[in-house]
Amino acid sequence: MAVTRKNKELEPDFTTDEEVEYLSKTEIKAQALEAQKLGVSLIDLGQAELAKVPMDSELLDAIMLARRIRQKKEGYRRHLQFIGKLMRTRDLAPIEQALLNIKSTHKKKNSEFHKVELLRDEMITQGNEKIEAVLAQHPSLDRQKLRQLVRQANKQKSENKPPKASRDLFKYLNQVING
Fold this sequence. Notes:
Layout: E1 2-3, E2 10-11, H1 25-43, H2 47-51, H3 57-68, H4 73-88, H5 93-126, H6 128-137, H7 143-158, H8 164-178
Antiparallel strand pairs: 1-2
Helix pairs in contact: 1-3, 1-4, 3-4, 5-6, 5-8, 7-8
């Protein structure tokens, strides 16, 4: 409190620019649950993907321990709560961004996989017309090999044999197109 000499009265001195946000107990619990869910998604990542996520050693150790105690239900539940507690004390933005990048990479790979799969099916059903269209888009493909694999795939399909040529065509297209 600041005392002014002119008026000789007490005036409160509140010069803070920041307003304090008060959270209800429900909001705090919801945030804790979200942090715990983020921790669970970290536990479910593979080792290579987990290495891409920025985190300190304490959180990494807790996640690795959770992977080992999954079978023990009550211990696992308590450990998830502990991971949630650790997550609440950290900046979650970099972790969320890393998870988003990992998911988008996975979606991109799935999309490429499905495009090649569709391309293979169209080549088998439409024949030379589709082969020529694909060769125009991807000149590094071998015309003779494509035609041979398409012929074999159609022959195997008509004879109700396993689709070995179809799988080989997919592998070849995926290798050349997606590198």
